[in-house]
Specification:
Elements: H1 2-34, H2 59-64, E1 77-82, H3 89-101, E2 107-113, H4 128-143, E3 147-151, E4 155-157, E5 162-163, E6 177-180, E7 185-187, H5 190-195, E8 205-208, E9 221-224, H6 228-237, E10 241-243, H7 245-250, E11 266-268, H8 281-287, E12 290-292, E13 303-304, H9 307-313, H10 318-339, E14 344-345, H11 350-357
Parallel strand pairs: 1-2, 1-6, 2-3, 4-10, 11-12, 13-14
Antiparallel strand pairs: 4-5, 6-9, 7-12, 8-9
Helix pairs in contact: 3-4, 3-10, 8-10
Amino acid sequence: MAISSSVVFIFTSLLFLSGYVLQQQTVRNLQAIIKPQPVAPPPPSPVLAKHFGTPPGHSFYDKYLASNRPKGGWSKVAYVQLVREHLHVCNALMLFAVLEEQESMAQRVIMYPKAWDQKVDGQSPLDPHIDTSKRLLRGAAKRYRVMLQPVEPMVKVVGGESVFPLAGLLSLSAYNRLIYLPPSGLVLDTSGLDHLFTLPMETNMLGISAGSEDESITPSVVLLSPSKDSFQTTLESLPSDGYDEDGFLSKIPRLADLPEDQVHIVAKTSSLRHEDDAFDAAEFLDTTSYVHISDADMLGPEYDSPREMTTLARPKKLQPRKAWHDVYEKYRQGRMDVCGLDLEPAPQSGKDTAGVEKQQT
């Protein structure tokens, strides 16, 4: 009898404990349901890597750029390149390739001689480079959303050849602001260049020089505010015969000083020879938006310049020389990647180099 009572007591105790445990679990579950859940903090907003980063089209960037948008919006500003010869076609494509890769929202225009589209007796022009240039231009329109605009010559340069003058860019009155980059150059970061669309202008043309206060030097960047009136006035001021584009460029008013956060937008290879031991090649390439490639002792970045020319033109200091070589190498690689073109062979005669020397001013 005592054993039976013990067994009953043990089982009763176990039953009570199991019921208690189940009860506690139920209470905890009810508390968890009734207790208000903490609200998770919103995810952090994306942060631009630079002060004026390239907009990828997300709403955050649209809001961020609201105060930095050019007048009239991005559809009213454009990068424009004026090409007159095959040598500079690839330079224009390299510019627009970077704009497309880095998602610049500005429009893109290439103006080229209308004669390239014309045929004589059903045949293409005799210049074998014309077909290549036209192929590259068609590729630019398709891949980089470039508007192609053929133009007629307007003025005669020294020697009698007729050309479409740089002042003709002012005729693009559908845009409020244009940026023209005299060839040749290397775009490293479009964000700084895009910011120039918002820069105040008091004249219809404004030049930005890199590396020299000498206003006889060709500006590295030209800003234009097109209009029918400014185009007509500027065109009438040009000589009908003996037009000199270098002289025209040298007379464009210059921007005295860039804002402090934009001082690294433009650089020039010829200025690297004046840098000292404190210069940092990696920082230069990382912080510069556009490098105007122009050295008095070089044929140009499109050419395979002889070693003696390269030795004479390159900076003497180690770090500036590294940056100089890196810029020329990036340009060479860009010609191959974007256009499928290797460097042009160096001209052999003085006659051949006459046209090359003009671009080194």
